[in-house]
Amino acid sequence: MCFKKKKRLGVTYIDDRKCLLLAAQSVDVLIALDKDELYKDRLLALQDSLLYLSPRENQEVFDIDQKIAEKIGDLKLILNKSDDIKDESIDKIITTIFVMIKERDAKELK
């Protein structure tokens, strides 16, 4: 008989997975808040990017994931307040999130 050790998932890995899933699900709320669908394409691209990120045990990557979740929360607040007008701060936050995802990818490779 062959006994293989089960690989245990670290707490950071599980927390990171939850953080990524919640962030991706939050984008659905952002799409619903975007009544005029001014940002729908960018938000869908953001959601796809978040869904396909792989969770990691690296603390630096986990910190970036938490910052991404915070930015999504900020975006939710701004979209709630905006009156169906194109707001540059929304574009800046979405761009910042994409940059953070690229930074995360770079940290993963280390």
Tell me the layout of helices and strands.
Elements: H1 11-33, H2 40-51, H3 59-81, H4 88-109
Helix pairs in contact: 1-2, 1-3, 2-4, 3-4
Brief overview:
The protein has 110 residues and is an all-alpha fold. The chain is built from 4 helices and no strands.
What does this structure look like?
- The protein has 110 residues and is mostly helical.
- It has one domain (11-109).
- It contains 4 helices and no strands.
- α1 packs antiparallel against α2 (40-51), α2 (40-51) runs parallel beside α4 and α3 (59-81) packs antiparallel against α4 (88-109).
- It starts with 10 loop residues before the first helix and ends with a helix.
- Mean pLDDT is 81; it is low at 1-8.
Quick tags:
single chain; mainly alpha; 73% helix; 0% strand; elongated
Q: Strand portion, in percent?
A: under 5%
Our Rg estimate from Cα atoms comes to 16 Å
When the domains are counted, the total is: 1
Structural class: mainly alpha
> What string, H for helix and E for strand, traces the elements in order?
HHHH
Number of helices: 4
What is the 3D shape? Answer: elongated
Instruction: Name the poorly predicted regions.
Output: 1-8
What is the terminal separation in angstroms?
A: 37 Å
Largest sheet: none
Number of extended strands: 0
Kindly state the percentage of residues in helix.
Answer: over 70%
Mean pLDDT, nearest integer? 81
